């Protein structure tokens, strides 16, 4: 019997666990051979078959003997430090599942190591692996500094690296291994090392920390190790609700030594915690199967995305064969490198379902950064020496539905910028992917990864370092000053999107832009009319998403992936709706024209217009033309002559890029607005569509008519109005298609009248134009793009004594109306009409039609941005004139 002070050898049930196993207890005679059959039960059966016989009432689970002392002098127990029936029940059960001579339950895994290290005397050597849990490392360091123990580290993946330490003259008492290691999942050949140690240093013991796999997947005692320990806080308990450690010994001497120490130190597990652990361990096999299957899916997914993943379940693991020789599964811990510590931090902090926590082995999935958490106690330089990189993320996989685990992880990877969507026409549909999941979940992880890819990290890092080395940043020499006009569509708006000819002219209201150099590696847009001011680090833009392109003209289509990325980026600033669209269009062109961050000039674009914005007068095309031309000039792709006009091929390039920006702003524009903004004058424009040839002819007759523009001041959005007409056409082609045909007839007739090819009197000319305008407005109403505010203007102008004809212009839905004012219209009546319109809350413009398209200032003094802003919309025309008329045009 053990004594309270532990001075004699302890006697606990665990000591005789094999002899008193449940099988012999239940059937001492073993008359039916049950014990022999039960001894062959597989692990999953053994782990639930806990002996409940050792209690007076036949309780089917081991009761909690919550007592410190036991009465009497001759019973099996006297003092719980030395032995307790609950702990004893746990220990005898664990001895079976570890294939151990004896098993001991202690308060934590680190206590286990502390007890085991006491087997080493001062002056003796512990030879340990070089990728150890941080707490292990800390305790070894303490044993060295306070216990005089010589601690050495070696690469345990290579037996040859251990041998020099084991030879004659070395006092190796203990070889301490983890396999696989935490967190690098390095694998040591336990059988080979045990044999080598026995041969070269027969007195040394081999100790294995088996926490990463648990006895379900690996039993080192069967491989020749002398002592195994486990942090039972992990897989053995499985629920992170108890702290415990298990030591399992392979031979009587080790059992005797360990039992003596535990009793002497008093580190045995408390009764209630023993109960919890025994409860948890019964589901070990079940939990581990699911966790491991999930881990394989996660590893496959990350590996297929191109990350460096450490996991023995992957074919790429260098010691996969060794691992599966000694273990029956790959476990549920893996680690992954992102190549960027901050990126890793962002991934970890963006995860939600994956809990950010130290430890592992519980049913819940966890994510952590070992260098900041579990391994932070290892000095940084030693971590670096041992290949433990700061960007390493450890994933400890639980039993959740793997689809939710990947959803959450994927979300974290996307949100942190670690992966970007992959546009690939061969990707599986979501139905097909769901089928793959049902049939082969592990393959599903790989298929799912194909939807994404890693951005070009080198380019990003390169960009960042360039962003820091500001001296080398590209910019422009001096301000680039540009301007472009708005437009009025007289006939054919909306229909033009569907291939009908439209007739439009430029306006003397314009947008002005100044692109100014910066020296801080940033790019910015300032749009005082929208109260928008935004700035971005050039290096932080998603350069890897810029689609490849050849030639100087723009792509025909927007890249949806880049667009979505820019929408997200711009949204971070919480801009207004118009500020967001202007920023996205600007950044899209900024990136697509430069193609690479190294080519992008650090600049600020300041824009302001005396055009009403979002009123149907082409403010977006004027803005787009300013953006495109300023950037192309910055890249020296458009040359500005000292005098004369801009080269027509350069004008075409500006038009193609302005059209791309219009696509950002309008979704599906016809191209008429940018054609007019870039080239000026009046045009008959037909979009090339569905095999029909497009075309653009200039026409002259506009300058001979007087038009009144009235802004209803009802805001609207061209993009949604254009989309609305497309939707109506799809739903009611029998209504819309005939209307489109009639608008084509109207445009054809108007074109003949305006260019003079249809001969008629002046009165006949005006009255025919009025009829065409009235008809066209009626058709636009049928298309659903008029608005009560526009109808109010139509009515006010049609009323006596004015009797004028008005139609909406541009996208409608509010915005502007255009009224034909005959030559003979009385000036006093005009004043009255203007007053009436203002009375409606509208804003009438008497403005000049026609006029130049793209304008570029040739000798720009610097620092014009602030004067542009100071001029304000009303002062822009005189501001432009004050620049000494050194403008060239398209
Ligand atoms: N002065 C400006 N400063 C900055 N951005 C502008 C300016 N003018 C126009 N924009 C951009 O163009 C958008 C307005 O486009 P929208 O198509 O709604 O109006 P519009 O071009 O005036 O009308 P329409 O295309 O029917 O002629 C704004 O949201 C903004 O993104
Ligand atoms: C409504 C529309 O026809 C004119 C917008 O100014 C659209 C377009 O042509 O792009």
Automatic annotation (TrEMBL):
Query: Record's SUPFAM superfamilies?
Result: GHMP Kinase, C-terminal domain, PLP-dependent transferases, Ribosomal protein S5 domain 2-like
Q: Which UniProt keywords apply?
A: Amino-acid biosynthesis, ATP-binding, Kinase, Lipid biosynthesis, Lipid metabolism, Lyase, Methionine biosynthesis, Nucleotide-binding, Pyridoxal phosphate, Transferase
Lipid metabolism as UniProt keyword: yes
Reactions mediated catalytically: (R)-mevalonate + ATP = (R)-5-phosphomevalonate + ADP + H(+)
Cofactor annotation: pyridoxal 5'-phosphate
Domain of life from the UniProt record: Eukaryota
Q: Which residues form the GHMP kinase N-terminal domain?
A: 595-680
| Keyword set includes RNA-binding | no
> Where is it chiefly localized?
cytoplasm
Q: What InterPro entries does the record point to?
A: Cys/Met-Metab_PyrdxlP-dep_enz (IPR000277), Cys_b_lyase_euk (IPR006238), Cys_met_metab_PP (IPR054542), GHMP_kinase_C_dom (IPR013750), GHMP_kinase_C_sf (IPR036554), GHMP_kinase_N_dom (IPR006204), GHMP_knse_ATP-bd_CS (IPR006203), Mev_gal_kin (IPR006205)
Part of which pathway? Answer: Isoprenoid biosynthesis; isopentenyl diphosphate biosynthesis via mevalonate pathway; isopentenyl diphosphate from (R)-mevalonate: step 1/3
The molecule here is called Cysteine-S-conjugate beta-lyase
* Entry's Gene Ontology molecular function annotations: cysteine-S-conjugate beta-lyase activity
Q: Where does the protein end up?
A: Cytoplasm
Q: Which family is annotated?
A: Belongs to the GHMP kinase family. Mevalonate kinase subfamily.
What EC number(s) does its UniProt record assign? 2.7.1.36, 4.4.1.13
One Pfam family matching this protein? GHMP_kinases_N
